[in-house]
Write a structure and sequence with these properties.
Blueprint: E1 4-17, H1 21-30, E2 33-47, E3 52-56, H2 63-70, E4 78-83, H3 93-96, E5 99-103, H4 115-125, H5 130-143, H6 159-171, E6 177-181, H7 189-206, E7 209-213, H8 217-223, E8 226-231, E9 234-240, H9 241-247, E10 251-258, H10 264-267, E11 272-277, E12 280-286, H11 290-300, E13 303-309, H12 313-323
Parallel strand pairs: 3-7, 3-8, 5-6, 6-7
Antiparallel strand pairs: 1-2, 1-4, 8-9, 10-12, 10-13, 11-12
Length: 327
C-alpha cells in the first residue's frame, strides 16, 4: 500500500489585476478582476514505504507548492492526496506525528537558544517521554556528529551544523515520511556529503520514506533511484533516474590527449569539438556514432590517452526541461 498517494492534484491561485494610477486604484477597490495561475495541474503519483524519491523541477515549476499540499500547509484546488493514510489539509494530530518537513531556506530552531533547549521544546510538543527523548537525542546527535554542539546557541553554529540541528529536530519524533526542500542549500561540499550520508543511514535504519527536492544534482544521484520531474505545474516524468539519463543523453564526451596540436577545423570531422586546451580535446559524439568515431579518432590521430564519459547530469536534466515533456 502506498504511503503517499496523489491523484489529479491541482492548485490554482487567483491573482488580482490592477491598472496603474488613481483611476486603476479606484476601479480595483470597487470591482476587482482576477486571473488564475495554475501552480500545479493534475499530477498523480504513488510512493511506497521506505522509498527515497527525488522531486525535480526548475524554479517556479510547482515543487514547493506540491510539498505544501502533501504536508497540509495549503489546501489543494482539486484532486485527492493521502499521506500515511491521512488527508493532509485536515492537519490531524495523528497525521502530524507521522511526517516532517525540512526547508533549507527556513529554520525552526530559536536563534539565541542552544539547540538542546529547542529540542526539548519539540519533545514537549510531541509528548516524547524523557527517557525516549534522551535515547533518540543520543542516537541522532551521534549520527550527525553534533554531540559537542548542542549546548551552543544556534547563531554560533556554522551553516552546516545548523542544518544538521534542523534535521535532528525534524526527526526527533521519528516520522514515517520526511519531506525535504533543498536541505543542502548553501552548504559547502563537506557539509553536503555529511547530510547525504546521514539521510541514507536514517532511511536504511528506520525505513523512512523521503521525498527530496534539490538543485544540487549530487543529492539526487547519491540518494534517489527514482525521480519525479515537474515542469510548469505538470508531472512530465516518473521513473528510474538511470533510464532518464539513458534516454536523454544523446551524446557522449570523448576526451583525448594528442601528441600534436591541431586546429578546430582539422578536428570537426571526428565529432563536435566542445573544447580545446592545447593537446587536450573534448569531442561530443552522438551515441549511435560512438563506435565508428572512436575507431576513426584512433586510426587518424596520434592519441596518447582517451576517455569516454557521460555528459554532466545537470545538462541532461536541463535538456528534459527545455523540451517540456518526456516522450
Amino acid at each position: 500500500m502506498s504511503i503517499i498517494a496523489v491523484e489529479q492534484l491541482s492548485k490554482t491561485y487567483p491573482v488580482a489585476l490592477k491598472e496603474p494610477g488613481l483611476k486603476g486604484t479606484i476601479q480595483h477597490f470597487f470591482k476587482r478582476r482576477y486571473r488564475h495561475i495554475k501552480a500545479v495541474e493534475n499530477i498523480s503519483f504513488h510512493i511506497q514505504p521506505g522509498e527515497m524519491v527525488g522531486f525535480l523541477g526548475p524554479n517556479g515549476a510547482g515543487k514547493t507548492t506540491t510539498l505544501k499540499m502533501l504536508t497540509g500547509l495549503i489546501h489543494p484546488s482539486q484532486g485527492q492526496v493521502k499521506v500515511a493514510g491521512a488527508t493532509p489539509f485536515r492537519r490531524q494530530s495523528s497525521f502530524l506525528r507521522k511526517i516532517s518537513l525540512v526547508m533549507g531556506q527556513k529554520q525552526q530552531l530559536l536563534w539565541d537558544l542552544p539547540a538542546l533547549d529547542s529540542l526539548r521544546i519539540n519533545a514537549a510538543i510531541y509528548d516524547i517521554p524523557e527517557n525516549i527523548f534522551q535515547e533518540r537525542l543520543t542516537e541522532l546527535s551521534a549520527m550527525l556528529s553534533l554531540d559537542s554542539k548542542l549546548t551552543q546557541p544556534i547563531r554560533k553554529l556554522s551553516l552546516g551544523e545548523r542544518m544538521k540541528a534542523e534535521l535532528l529536530a525534524a526527526l526527533l519524533h521519528h516520522p514515517k515520511v520526511l519531506f525535504l526542500d533543498e536541505p543542502t542549500l548553501g552548504l559547502d561540499v563537506n557539509a553536503q556529503v555529511a547530510v547525504r550520508n546521514f539521510l541514507r543511514e536514517y532511511n536504511q535504519r528506520y525505513g523512512a520514506t523521503i521525498l527530496l527536492t534539490s538543485h544540487y544534482m549530487a543529492d539526487i544521484t547519491a540518494l534517489c533511484e527514482r525521480v519525479l520531474l515537474i515542469h510548469q505545474g505538470q508531472l512530465i516524468y516518473d521513473g528510474s533516474l538511470d533510464q532518464l539519463l539513458s534516454d536523454f543523453s544523446p551524446y557522449r564526451e570523448v576526451k583525448v590527449e594528442l601528441a600534436n596540436v591541431y586546429s578546430r577545423e582539422q578536428l570537426t570531422r571526428f565529432g563536435e569539438v566542445e573544447s580545446i586546451n592545447g593537446q587536450e580535446i573534448c569531442f561530443l559524439v552522438k551515441q549511435e556514432q560512438l563506435t565508428s568515431q572512436i575507431s576513426q579518432i584512433l586510426e587518424q590521430l596520434p592519441v596518447l590517452d582517451l576517455s569516454i564519459n557521460d555528459p554532466p547530469i545537470e545538462e541532461i536534466i536541463g535538456r528534459v526541461f527545455s523540451l517540456g515533456a518526456v516522450t
